[in-house]
């Protein structure tokens, strides 16, 4: 495994391998939990990479699965050790969506549908500050500042000179009309979107009001894809108190088809830029 793989992805790959070993053994997660005197939910969290896994956990699971090749056991235990390292985002303390950041950091491409606001990777600092403060009115100024800095740091994935994240964003037109911060903040934000959309790896489409009901009517979601074939695609749905990660092929396929409908219903790239430019000029008046 390459040394530059981040801990979130390491946990995910390790979990996939442990699931494979369990399935080869023909055991259910419930049966494994009973053997180890732990909860079934712990086994599930270990397998889906949402929980930190210790070398002892790996050793115990390999024992249950009767893995005889010591090289495999040692390799998995090393993966567990590496997965407990911290990504750059841990320096900012407790970030609610740290699992997502880890996935985004390693993703090759990202497709986003955003119905309410300009998506985080495209936000200016002023817009991000207004969004974070408005969305977390009871949080301290220090916590809000931390969230803004994390959001801006994430943007290095689309500004990197080597292998930048391939980003496709569908913005509901409502996000362009919602005045966040001030009219000046909005003008600068929309100009920023236009500038970024000129990059070959960034595509922005606007879903216009005139479409009416559409495939994304149920809300925001993102689809992350990875270069390594061992890493399955993930659908991410952000929540208020908890987030949802969907990895089953039929779930990912359903959201992928929905996204294709959204792209088809949206203005094309050039028409989208014109719509954004027109609104930016209106904010300048």
TrEMBL record:
CDD domains: HTH_XRE. InterPro entries: Cro/C1-type_HTH (IPR001387), DUF5753 (IPR043917), Lambda_DNA-bd_dom_sf (IPR010982). Pfam families: DUF5753, HTH_31. It comes from the Bacteria. Residues 18-72 form the HTH cro/C1-type domain. This is Helix-turn-helix domain-containing protein. It comes from Streptomyces atrovirens.
